[in-house]
Predict the structure of Zinc-type alcohol dehydrogenase-like protein.
Amino acid sequence: MKAVGLYRYLPIDHAESLLDIELPLPEPGPNDLRVAVRAIAVNPVDTKVRAPKAQQESTPRVLGWDAAGVVDAVGRDVTLFKPGDRVYYAGDITRPGCNAEFQLVDERLVGPMPASLDFAAAAALPLTAITAWEACFTRLGISPDGQDAGKTILIVGGAGGVGSIGIQLARTLGRLTVITTASRTESASWCRELGADHVIDHRGDLVAQVRALGLDTVDYIACFNDTDQHFPALAELIRPQGTIVTIVENARPLPVELLKSKSAAFAWEFMFTRAMFRTDDRIEQHRLLARIADGIDAGRLRSTLGEVLGPIDATTLRHAHARLEAGHTIGKLVLEGWS
């Protein structure tokens, strides 16, 4: 089968940073689906895993953790899907990724693809939808059934992949008042289209801008951009006994003591945790992806597809990685079909 992989971890402008390769067709394990991959999306995790380092691989490493495709074969214990089903998923970072014509993935991490979407639009969703869902509804404890309607959330980094679906989940399912940040006119417009009630600039004074909206504090904070830079402001803005969640690694120690007087909590969200540690609740990712699909098909949610760049091959993937590393994408970058 065709695939894109690497042997060395190189700068993305190096011709061998990602290579077109051929691999044997994998055989599904007991709980696996073998999926014929039709479209993939790229995420910052791809560029971070591929980032330059001395390590070398004796066999090619295949990246990619956002896909939509068709079930080709199933393992003996599979009960949720059958061959021919259209599915979407992010998968497991400890296993070969979706930059291949066929991929094995545990059925508990897979959702039924939204019936109203094509493969490209569906591939834009899984990793960021899982991340945003777990951040909002698991880590922050917001009700996905609207029981916290009218409360406020600040989403730092609204125009990226996670922010784009996070705005929708918080506004449509949570029924919250959504304040988000964007630094450019086009990204601010994108956030408003997705349902943000207020858009402020994360290059400016967040505290002053939130208070200019008539708010001393906010009920929830989700940081999807530069935890180091924004943490002091977020600590000042979170309500007493509130929670801040982040998905962005800090480069230096965070001043968590700023949260003490408020008895505020700080949480991490990493959507690969369930797969990496084989937790007993892996099925929750299947369930939440099914609920996202229902929301899409009912018209309450929309895909966060930003741009389809071309077919799945090393040249197009190198271009996608370079675009992500430049840091100016809106929505998700997707590749569809095999060249």
The chain has a mean pLDDT of 97. The chain has ten helices and 16 strands. Residues 168 and 194 are 6 Å apart (CA to CA). The domain at 129-268 is CATH 3.40.50.720 (Rossmann fold).
